[in-house]
Amino acid sequence: MNPVINQSHISGKLFEFIEILRDANITISADEVIALFNAVTEIELEEKNIFRQTLKTTLVKDYTDIPVFDRCFDEYFSSRQRFFDGMDSDDLINFTDRVSNNVVNEIDSQLEKFIDSLDPAILLEKSAEEIMQMFLDDLPESDSSGGGEGMGIFRSRGGATGSYYSRSESGETDQKNMDEILAIIKNMINLKITRRNIGKTLKNREDFLLNKFIYQLTPQEIKEMREIVNRFGQKLKSRISLRKKRVKHGGIDIKRTFRTNLQYGGVPFKLFYKTKKIDRPQLVVMVDVSRSVNQYSRFMLLLTYSLQSLFSKVRTFAFISNMVEITDLFREMDPERAINSMFTDINFTYGWGSNYGRCFDQFIENHSDALTRKTSVLILGDARNNDNDPGLDSFQKIHDKTRNVFWLNPDKKHLWDWNDSLASLYGYYCKEMKEVNNFLDLSGFIDKLFIDTK
Amino acid sequence: MFTSVEEAIKELEKVKYIASKEIATTVYLALKLEKPVLVEGPAGVGKTELAKCIASALNIDLIRMQCYEGLDESKALYEWEYAKQLLYTQILKDKLSEIMGSEETLKGSIEKLTSSEDVFFSEKFLIPRPILQSITNNRRSVLLIDEIDKSDSEFEAFLLEVLSDFQVTIPELGTFKTDVKPFVFLTSNSAREMSDALKRRCLHLYIDYPTLELEEKIVSLKVPDSGPRMTRQIVETVQRIRKLQLKKEPSISETLDWTKALVLLGYQDLDPAIAMETLNFILKYEKDIKLAISQSKEVFLN
Description:
The complex is a heterodimer of chains A (454) and B (302).
Chain A: H1 3-23, H2 30-40, H3 48-59, H4 66-77, H5 89-98, H6 101-117, H7 120-125, H8 128-144, H9 152-155, H10 171-211, H11 219-245, E1 249-252, H12 254-261, E2 273-275, E3 282-288, H13 294-306, E4 313-319, E5 323-325, H14 327-332, H15 335-345, H16 356-367, E6 375-380, H17 392-401, E7 404-409, H18 423-427, E8 432-435, H19 439-452
Parallel strand pairs in A: 3-4, 3-6, 6-7, 7-8
Antiparallel strand pairs in A: 1-2, 4-5
Chain B: H1 5-14, H2 21-33, E1 37-40, H3 47-58, E2 61-66, H4 73-76, E3 78-80, H5 82-91, H6 93-101, H7 106-116, E4 126-128, H8 130-136, E5 141-146, H9 153-165, E6 167-170, E7 174-177, E8 183-188, H10 196-201, E9 203-206, H11 212-222, H12 228-242, H13 252-264, H14 272-277, H15 286-294, H16 296-299
Parallel strand pairs in B: 1-8, 1-9, 2-5, 5-8
Antiparallel strand pairs in B: 3-4, 6-7
């Protein structure tokens, strides 16, 4: 292959790969693309690690995106050898004996062109078989415009005169070869389609998990979620801290300015400003950990703790029918383990089911020192009190002593106040009672907390 | 200048820095493309060390700037030497009045003054700070901007001019430009996220904890007195400890400290009892030490 074609072939691949990364929600600007193309000319592309690092170092600027990049890279650049998937090895050896690599390459590049010409939407909708059919139907035309010699195989597809490779005259072998070639083409199409859509697939999966009702998550998905929650938390954190940084300068610090400028005879050459204290909200989190809302509490706790450094103080309480402080537990262990050990170590239950009233009473009695005018209280629970005393007095006290009270309710809105739910009774004292279904709701809420509390 | 990725690895090894292929590739490209590098990763994996070693491998100056909250242009770029300016006006008072003396009107004297005021805002009264130094010294140098995440976002914004055009504008004097661009390394522990504009101008390098083989190589290069046997034992143990749920994982620098200490104490072999006694070299929290000891069966195998 002459170098010019080779170049354009490579840049085509790179552009396609960049597209995939963009699909997966990695931001890549023109600057990065230019850097990549400058870099590619400086290195030898043969070695995979160097190639990978070149792409990584020029394109991916956020280290939380690295796992996503790695996955896309592996999928995209290592899929070639899997053209032969689903054929047993004897066949394969036979096959490669008879057919030169050229044919495979030929088909490959023809396919590439064909798929390029298709509307991307079709790739998502149709199955590999359908696309193969379209590809084969398309062939005669492209042939007349001077398609590759390898395509001769298909000129009389279905017939037994497969021309190009059939040095043996036996029709039976031809048929077998035909089948094999078709199988390979199918594999190729499959791979090409998945490859083009890796980015989208990853992104879709993430969106799907973040949007899924938390109580519907399977254990497998919860495991998957952990990584996403982590990444998400980090992004949220840096976004919020960036926002916080913006308001920094206060007025002139007279004392310091005078003191320093004494050396210039009191002429204020250098000015000093008071640095405004960054206003970090204090947070009291109370989560209902009874079975009905358990799964929500878990994510809530995970999220609050990945964001802990943004708050000046976080105190966490869990309750079913007893209110227990679990702040220390999280200080000692990573949240995942803390949550798991929480249930084995601590006795939340007294009697049966959640008892909000009793818990609020206990809170006022034992922990009211946690409440100040700077505190935001975050309650997560379904407000289903099992017909116990609502403890409104205590709840009102919580409201009076703090800046604001937010309530996150996993119940659907139309179920609030139904049966034993006291949603609007408590809701009256809250700044907001909000329905949360999925992880996005949760994180969106925390994000908002930082804007509202200004 | 390195001529290939392999050579970069070799040259860095000569100055006792073991670079993985990833690191070497980024370094090589950064030098070739003359782009700054933003290095991120956990504390103690040798981010700062990398910049230092590149400077000594290429045998050029290292100009280092440590960032902190409140760092501003006057500390990073340049500062007018107010005291000196004041002093000179005092000393030159007579000379000044001599010049001014002939002028009758206020307007005339001000015009005269402005015509010569440039004297006081010339390079004589300028203290160049690290960034200006790296641009004006006309030799290639490595500019290390350490822990950029500790600085304020205003400072970061002002770095942009330097990083993209390698020029610095001083209002009184004009724009300083350089033909010999410095190699810029920015390190960050990601205490906060850098702005997109800054990231766009840099290559990005994430250095993680090294693999077993790499760490072994590093230790045996830096602490040759520890025999291959103990080195292996130490590195394996540290790698296992990193897998525990710790508050702070031991970094390479801690592995090195530990090895040095064990060598100094005269051990040739890391047996579990010694390891547990000296754990405080690699673990900095009481809780972590306790945890490691409670898991001793899995951690200390030799």
